[in-house]
User: What shape does this take?
Amino acid sequence: MAAAGCLRVTGWRFGRIAAMLAAGLLGGCQVGPAFRSPTLAVPPRFAAASPANAPPAWPQPGWWRAFGSPELSGLVEAARTHNFSVREAVAQLEIANAEVLGAGAPLFPTISASGSGTYSQYGSAASGGSSSGGRSGGGGGSVDTHSYAASFNASYEIDFWGKNRDALEAAEANAASARFNAATVALTEEAAVATTYFQALAYADQLRTARRNLTAARGLLAQLQGEFRAGVADAPTVAQQAALVAAEAATIPNYTSLYRQEVIALGILTGQAPEYLTVHGGSLDDLRVPVIRPGLPSQLLTRRPDIAQATENLVSANAS
Assistant: This one.
């Protein structure tokens, strides 16, 4: 009796332990919570903001057009199409979109169908032989046999623990991250093209100024040399002006080289050989500088594609 009682207690304990293990396993199979962006206590308006100030509307997509330069717009559009970094980011986005389709496939039924057909011809020892299970040929004493088969299968995996749905969510977040990465690369290259173009125009302005200064310095030197020959000017004054002419002449190759470097950089940014690129921009004074109203709200930070990309990376990591 004692032994039987001991067995009953042991069995009861075993069942309790098994139930606890099962509960632990079930808890381990549960999917994680959905991602929630942290909320920050951001004031609705600045303390010193004026109610009359309209909300800023710049920058917007196509912001480079606000400078009123058709040449700058053409260079930016060329970079958006032919820049190798932009093309790489777009290719990565296409890969991520394809991975979304693959990750979502397990959530749908799998359907397969197959078919086959065979044709056989058998010779007969006697020309008048009989045929069975097929279609007899003509008077040649042969037997033709046709057979067909078809099959259709359908299966579906129940996503009981949400593993497949989490995989799809992670893939979608990766695709969104790739999309924001492409936007980040495009915005970076657009800004680089605009900055390089402005710098090229600045060097062109400096080059024109240096050439005008050189022309004026040479004219003054010729005048001083004439006065020196007439005995009006002294030799140190002429020598000083000659040194100034040499200094002005030395700046021209420097500005020419700097301008050419910016043109080469524009060629690289736009994905074309610099030898085929010519900048006719003129002067910085020809640009229309857009007006940026002060008091940009903090919400402008959330429009940055690199921050949006980091958020999608968190969503993907949470779902993985």
User: Anything to note?
Assistant: The first helix runs from residue 2 to 29.
